[in-house]
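Protein fold
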Amino acid sequence: MKKKLLMKVPSAPLTTGVWPRLLALGLVAALGSSSPAWAQTLPGALGTSVVDGLNYRTYNLNLVGGFKQVRLQTTVAATNTLWEFMLSTSDYSTNWRPYTAGQTLAGFNQFIDPTQQAASARVNDNTGGQTGRLPATSSGSYYTFNIPNTRANQSIGNSMQVLETTFNPVTIGTPTATASAFGQTTTVTATLGGTPDANENFYLRYSTNGYASSTVQLMTRSGTTVTSTIPGQTSGTVSY
């Protein structure tokens, strides 16, 4: 049985049409051998001034399943704070940021598509492109920067998102599942890293056809344990 990492999203700021697309950031896509050399790379760091609205700092990205992530808490409210993704904290030779200056992200808690939005993680080589800007931030809030660990749109860039929450989201442990025969239900369980905020919800995404299509369902929480039941299947492999 294949495992698919759970992804947690805050319930309040997101609309029904947004969070399934956020979950899709965990998918890994293959890269064709004919791609240019710069497209063979992946982002490894974030540069931003979001913490205090003034000082630009760089951070290594953390690998979380099929995407990379950094979470930062602000100390002041600010406008026009900077952001960009790059190969490492000191290597901007390939980077993921807008092509032109003065581009502000459309908003927080939404899917940012580089094929549709100029203010996005568009790929640049030879240190090209310009540092992007964030919408107004709030003091004391948490900002989680997510970018796929994939090369799905290597000629354009990577989808991305910046989640804004008033709380520090808890971590999710590796999910486990009960063994089951064809036709029997499968229960998936994961342990949280702490007691979640009242606004946090947890979702399970599963597929029976290699993610040609999939189902997303709300998990049930008891303390720091979340569970969800996948209906019995008569054929195929269940991936989650």
In short: The helical segments are 19-23. Confidence is low (pLDDT under 50) at residues 1-39. Residues 13-28+42-165 form one domain.
